[in-house]
Specification:
By secondary structure, this protein is α/β, with parallel strands linked by helices. The chain is built from 15 helices and eleven strands. Helix 5 links the parallel strand 3 and strand 4. The mean pLDDT is 95. Bound molecules: 5'-deoxyadenosine and FE2/S2 (inorganic) cluster (FES). The site of FE2/S2 (inorganic) cluster (FES) has 8 residues, from helix 14.
């Protein structure tokens, strides 16, 4: 039965759900197909994005997140402009090709201007040779446009779950945490010109396998360019911790995450898919296994050591005591262990985005 589904051009909800439930021989066929699609459409190489977690100050209160505003146990930090520019330069010097600047969600003219200034600074110090992805939450369309003009060209904004009902159980019920606004933000990012990335958490309390299948079909329906997704990991200082007894065992969440990646690779052959750090929290080889399942982006953490331990969205986050140099060495080994090559000095734009925006080059 799985063989038939894997041949379909346009699998439906029951097909994708069946793939998520595949076991034994069927499971093997799923991963084999994903590997084949990856080799054919994006190649067995992995793009690097140096991840700079530049501030853990957040105005939001998502029920799952360790740096939510109401968690008074986390010391808050905000890197200096100099520290951020140095980290970006480190990525450039180490031939990473690209960085991701991530922070808690802050809004307002001061924040917009600050990020704009940082983008200018990065462009100057790297002569425009470093691609920048932003991951700074929901902003106004004007802010997105300003950041795009200042040189950022990709933006990550996870939907967390495409189920409106589940979304409302994971967030306070107010204007700041509106599902509709999140959907609108994704449309605004697309209009501003960004390569747009989204993603979901896998194995949330109350989440069903069918919800996850719908997540994948939703990503396809909005024609997304990039995806980062990984297992939900409970954090004891958050409200969602109350429901920890409802969770699947961590290994099952990990297995579902691998299957989500493999199925997405088959559904959207030329997009960029990240091997999320959360995968490595459950399995020491988690990110390598994600690459083997279909991911083609790896995000070495280049946040200065002094603050790393404070950016804990979930507990047991790996690599919080390594310095950026150690990370660099370890990344290459990890990627080679699954017979993929590191793409140094490559921007690694989403092939999907390039085809969508420049169809003449096809
Ligand atoms: N477990 C796993 N992922 C989490 N994130 C936030 N909190 C958790 C958690 N407890 C993810 C969200 C967010 C991204 C930056 O980190 O998907 O969008
Ligand atoms: Fe950072 Fe391993 S990836 S130390």
């Amino acid at each position: 039965m799985i063989d038939k589904i894997l041949e379909k051009n346009d699998p439906g909800l029951s097909d994708v759900t069946a793939l998520l439930n595949a076991e034994g021989r069927d499971r093997g066929l799923l991963f084999e197909k994903a590997r084949q699609v990856k080799a054919e459409h994006v190649g067995n190489k992995v793009y690097l994005r140096g991840l700079i977690e530049f501030s853990n100050i957040c105005a939001k209160d998502c029920f799952y997140c360790g740096i939510r505003r109401s968690n008074s146990r986390v010391p808050r930090y905000d890197l200096s402009d100099e520290e951020i520019l140095n980290a970006a330069y480190f990525a450039y010097k180490n031939r990473y090709g690209s960085i991701v600047m991530q922070s808690g969600e802050l809004t307002g003219p001061h924040f917009t201007e600050r990020v704009e200034g940082l983008l200018d600074g990065i462009r100057e110090s790297t002569e425009g040779n470093l691609r920048v992805t932003l991951s700074c939450g929901e902003q106004t369309p004007e802010t997105y446009e300003r950041w795009f003009r200042a040189g950022a060209d990709r933006y990550l904004l996870r939907i967390e779950t495409s189920s409106r009902e589940l979304y409302s159980r994971l967030h306070p019920n107010d204007e700041k945490h509106s599902f509709d606004k999140r959907l609108q933000a994704l449309r605004d990012l697309r209009s501003a010109g960004f390569q747009v990335g989204t993603g979901v958490m896998i194995g949330l309390p109350f989440q069903t396998t069918e919800d996850l299948a719908r997540d994948l079909l939703w990503m396809k329906s909005i024609d997304i360019d990039m995806v980062g997704m990984g297992p939900y990991l409970e954090h004891k200082d958050t409200p969602l911790y109350t429901y920890r007894d409802l969770l699947l065992p961590k290994q099952a969440r990990f297995e579902l995450s691998l299957k989500m990646i493999a199925i997405l690779r088959i559904l959207m052959k030329d997009i960029n898919i990240a091997a999320s750090t959360a995968m490595q929290t459950i399995d020491p080889q988690g990110r390598e296994r994600a690459i083997d399942a279909g991911a083609n982006v790896f995000m070495p953490n280049i946040t200065p050591c002094r603050v790393r331990e404070f950016y804990k969205l979930y507990e047991d986050k790996p690599c919080t005591d390594e310095n950026p140099d150690d990370c660099r060495r370890c990344v290459e080994q990890r990627i080679a262990s699954v017979s993929n090559d590191v793409a140094y000095d490559e921007w690694g734009d989403s092939g999907h985005y390039l085809k969508r925006t420049r169809p003449a080059d096809r």
